Amino acid sequence: MIRILLSTTSYQDIPGPHHDLLASSGAEVVLERGPLSEARMLELAGDFDAFLCGDDVITRAVLDKATPRLKIISKYGIGVDKIDVEACTEMGIPLSFCPGVNHTTVAEHTFALMLALFRHLVEEANYCAEGVWKRMTGHEIMGKTIGIVGLGRIGREVALRAKAFGLKVIAYDVYWPVEFAEANDIERASGLTQLFRQADILSLHSNLTEETRDMIDARSIPNLKDGVVIINCARGELVNSVDMAAGLASGKIAGYGADVLDEEPPAADHVLLKAPNCIVTPHIGSRTYESVVRQAMMATENLINMLKGEKPLAQVNEAPIPAAMI
Ligand SMILES: NC(=O)c1ccc[n+]([C@@H]2O[C@H](COP(=O)([O-])OP(=O)(O)OC[C@H]3O[C@@H](n4cnc5c(N)ncnc54)[C@H](O)[C@@H]3O)[C@@H](O)[C@H]2O)c1
């Protein structure tokens, strides 16, 4: 019998038609609560024909142990930075993913964090809950300049919403979407340094690569405007946590809203959990009932297509699809 490892929690926890669709494959589905470490993946690897995974660590060593039984991987989500894509391709394992299903939901979360920081929302709500009527003065975002790093699917949705809030939008991307930028009056920054110098609010939406890792660190922080507010709904590793904590403590950075951390879940003493003016949410940017169902349906369709020997809706690498298994 075909065995599938299903490790994403939002897929499991949220009701919707994806559960019936997955059951229709007739496969045995083994549930784990991800994101799984490399050590846990190494324990599990070898007994599955397919992974339906979230942000579990799938290294070459995991793939070595998982093959030859493992034939396909369906990534639930868009970021494949925890998967050794090159090794997948070399070993002939097609890897599918889910672009275009969670960008609106993540953009909304970006503004939730941004507005919360500008209006001291968490602090104020906590005071009220304690019976303290302490009125702090915030800032409005209208008229400020937002710098967007990565004008991809989510970055563009953030840009559109920023315009509606009356923000000036500048952005930097290695691939510039000419038509979108022109149609929406988005200024192109020549590089990160220019973007950092101009942005009152910096919102990170690029993929995690070796080039973008530690984009915000002790070397780049001096290039930021004094009192910048940074939002990160992309990947924790884009920001060096220790350097961010120091930037917040000195006041150079006025606020950090992070939906993602370099360690998830974080250790209780993670440097950003108690940093001043820092709001951390537990990687829930795409976790809405609407988005989870869209993403789960796409990940399941991808999986079932590949189990049938057909192409998925979206594939990351160019490995050939194996012969039908169901
Ligand atoms: N918080 C969440 O729950 C959540 C949910 C979905 C996606 N994400 C993360 O959000 C990020 C963006 O997702 P997306 O769907 O918009 O992806 P996308 O691929 O559509 O966009 C990413 C953009 O980043 C750009 N980019 C790559 N390298 C760059 C660099 N060095 N400098 C500037 N730009 C660069 C790409 O050209 C692309 O336009 C990913 O890291 C993804 O993992 C987080």
Automatic annotation (TrEMBL):
Superkingdom, taxonomy of origin: Bacteria
Gene Ontology biological-process annotations: amino acid biosynthetic process
Annotated D-isomer specific 2-hydroxyacid dehydrogenase NAD-binding domain residues: 111-285
SUPFAM superfamilies: Formate/glycerate dehydrogenase catalytic domain-like, NAD(P)-binding Rossmann-fold domains
Location of the D-isomer specific 2-hydroxyacid dehydrogenase catalytic domain: 22-317
Keyword Metal-binding assigned: no
MF GO annotations: NAD binding; oxidoreductase activity, acting on the CH-OH group of donors, NAD or NADP as acceptor
Protein keywords: Amino-acid biosynthesis, NAD, Oxidoreductase
One Pfam short name: 2-Hacid_dh
Family membership noted in the UniProt record: Belongs to the D-isomer specific 2-hydroxyacid dehydrogenase family.
Protein name: 2-hydroxyacid dehydrogenase
Organism (species): Cerasicoccus arenae
Top-level taxonomy: Bacteria, Pseudomonadati, Verrucomicrobiota, Opitutia, Puniceicoccales
